[in-house]
């Protein structure tokens, strides 16, 4: 019963397991404290971005500004962080606040402006990346070494990045999703009209989901900054579309109401690690995006292959 | 809507449809924007500048044709950037290798048709969300381009025909806006008068109902996506002629801007309502905005911010959704 | 009870002193874009009564429900609850005042569990607002037990439930708010007779506890025996309030329509015994939902499909129209083998489908009447893939006249038409596709009595032209009144085919329940057992 819940994540889990198995075969060194750290660090940013995307997708929307918020957070963090622990602490809070604020703007426009999420976030993508560019016209900036190692280091076999990811997932996102707000987020995505008639405050639920999404995207930006230790206003661009891909690969339904955190997190690792696997397999870097695209396409087709067998075509059309 | 219109319901419903879809509003905005631009800088009204603006609008406008058709069916085509880049590079390279311009352009168009077909198969047969499916296609095409060019900026010559279409003059008129005008007229007629046009709107509104009317809705998706693939290729070829070169990433600026033009032109992003008449206004608004922002010299960051804010403002003005209870 | 009730008389003049008025709505008006849905309407009900609200389509019942439940605000008028004037800011506010509503459009969340659906918005929470699944299920179980429901698992997903169970969940969702006033808008449309009976047992328990119930249904005859009083609405106004026992069905229909309408069926077309068969099925199957269907449909014949709800009747119609993949068996049309693997093949073979839900399957609601009528015939209205506007308008005008479609203009969106007129559009698009075989999926569901009558005439008219009709209806009287033969389905098979005088309510029910026909008394016993 409880395992059945995770059926939608199965495709991503099997995919990642096969990928890691092949990677291990190619590069036995990855089963080492160092290798684990490398693998974990590679996927964490996208995993956080995917959680951000998932929260919005669950309401039936999509957040095209995730990448821009990642860039904005990276620009803020790398530009203002300084060296003292207090300024680091302050700037981390500031960055998370900026992310949540960006989410708030998205949410207000969607919920009270009544504009399609895809349009809102397409427009705010420009706005937030503009602010990122304003803060960091050229790539540069820095973060203190201890900040970077606190997030990307490891304690023996245990990479800190996994702890960060687990902490964000279990201590921040899970309590929210298990509260009435969490059910409301699912409900709004499942049946918006029904949610309104059931007495759920639909606009407030939407705004909350976008704020959570913005906050999580800022988490992704902060982690990315620890990885790159510098700022770049366009560093987050690829995270928008990859986060959507991870969410879909991870079994959530674009359109809302269905999806768990596990699948998108696992899928995010799959998407992030595959580049290294191809590199280790000796595939020329030119072929890498061919493979990435081909794998994404095959996975999507495989995931929806049921449409070819389904008897009731009408049901297929409505899916 | 009002009492005096009731006497002629046809007219009334048409008028209300017009304003509801934002087409009228977008044209009013366009006029306002032109007036503002001319007041800010009288040189804006010069023939040289108008020609230059139209030239830029052509690429966006042609790509937005395909995007309008796809968006009308409730989908979106995110494979435009690398479809455009790959086909342009293919065309230029083939021509550079000594093939005739017919072969070169034909190959490029075949790429566009193929991409459209694959996009349509994913959406219509596998029922995948176009947002992710066409995105995967885009990644695949990016890879194909890298493999084809070895990651080097291609060194190639541009067919004279392409140069002429892109930057030539015909009796004082620049040719490329004429190409756009021709395609625009065809598009508007197809949308208004053809069976395919009718089915596009129906598919975007309620695909199961059209399916149960005995219409093969898969073909509607094929038509829309193939049109989009071909429009991206034509846009890319003209862009190649305009820039006198092809380069990796030349399509990157032609994804979001045409989509913005479609939305500003009042086409519903969820499909089923709108049309190309509005997209023309949307295209010109987007181009004018960009050029006003350039003239104002506020830098890329400021440009992005203002551009995003203006899209939001315009959409708030006329493309809001109904309340759930209405 | 006079046969011509005076709307100005006080409906509550007879109110017994014992029962107090719970709800008093006065002078409610609400209009949408110039159309008055409610015009100065009054309505009241008392504590501890079951009160039916009746009216034809467009009478304003649903609008009144939306106003009473806080979904929409009235333009004018006052609502008093237990003597206190109220103004609801939304459904949640109405719920706080003790008004809970079961809406016509199901407001459930298919991918949440039964328990989450029922308790949505007021789930039991603990530390840090965390929902307690255990307490939630316990609460729901308790709720189920109090009303003797034991076949629905609180942890099941609503998407996996039958339509009838979903409607029960919807009702429990309203009940979980412990309302003083419970409103059921078409709350029984998906329920079988047995379930309706059970629902009313449940409502009587609530009534005994002092809850007032407002009940809206098209199935008037079915609910009559269960309700205390009835209020009839017409054209957005209150017409009369009567005791359920006082007025006859005929009188009520008359009040609903404002004129006397005989509900009768047109004479069935005579079929010659040697009439050629139009459609023959042999071993027609679609997975487990449809097994080994064989029959022949003759020209001029109406073949009915009956049985309990969801026994493959819908699947048969959809599969015949090519909406199913992997169908097996032989299909012969006019003596020639035919392929119906897709809707376009079915259409080319001369099959037309009037689907179950006109709003989501039959019409493209935002598009115009003209566009909706021509989807299936567009290729014949122009050349080279283009549409000739003159031809199209002429065609549409002809169809609208032939079917007496009431619309001010053919350019109006289909959405703006009444249910009956919408259904006519769905039929209109098929009339000139050259179709010989018409498949009707419950065509009169949710349309008013007058238009139903028009539909009966249309169906018989088709048979007079030599067409064949397969009709699935949830109203047994329609099957009896219109069909030459009735195939009763159970679990994807045809279990019995009734003909002529054998088509009676008892025989259909007996066959549906899997007991041999022929013994009328056994049939009536079964009818009782089923209740």
UniProtKB/TrEMBL annotation, chain A:
GO terms for molecular function: transmembrane transporter activity. The chain crosses the membrane at residues 6-25, 86-111, 118-135, 155-172, 206-224, 236-254, 261-283, 289-308. It is found in: Cell membrane. It is a multi-pass membrane protein. The keyword Iron does not apply. The keyword Membrane applies. GO terms for cellular component: plasma membrane. Its main location: membrane. InterPro entries: ABC_transp_permease. Keywords: Cell inner membrane, Cell membrane, Membrane, Transmembrane, Transmembrane helix, Transport. PANTHER family: ABC TRANSPORTER PERMEASE PROTEIN YPHD-RELATED, ABC TRANSPORTER PERMEASE PROTEIN YPHD-RELATED-RELATED. This is ABC transporter permease. It comes from Jiella pacifica.
From TrEMBL, chain B:
One of its GO terms (cellular component) is plasma membrane. It is found in: Cell membrane. The keyword Transmembrane applies. The keyword Translocase does not apply. It is a multi-pass membrane protein. It comes from the Bacteria. It holds the Pfam family BPD_transp_2. The chain crosses the membrane at residues 24-44, 56-76, 96-118, 130-151, 171-192, 219-244, 256-289, 301-319. GO terms for molecular function: transmembrane transporter activity. CDD domains: TM_PBP1_transp_AraH_like (cd06579). The lineage of its organism: Bacteria, Pseudomonadati, Pseudomonadota, Alphaproteobacteria, Hyphomicrobiales. Keywords: Cell membrane, Membrane, Transmembrane, Transmembrane helix. InterPro entries: ABC_transp_permease. This is ABC transporter permease.
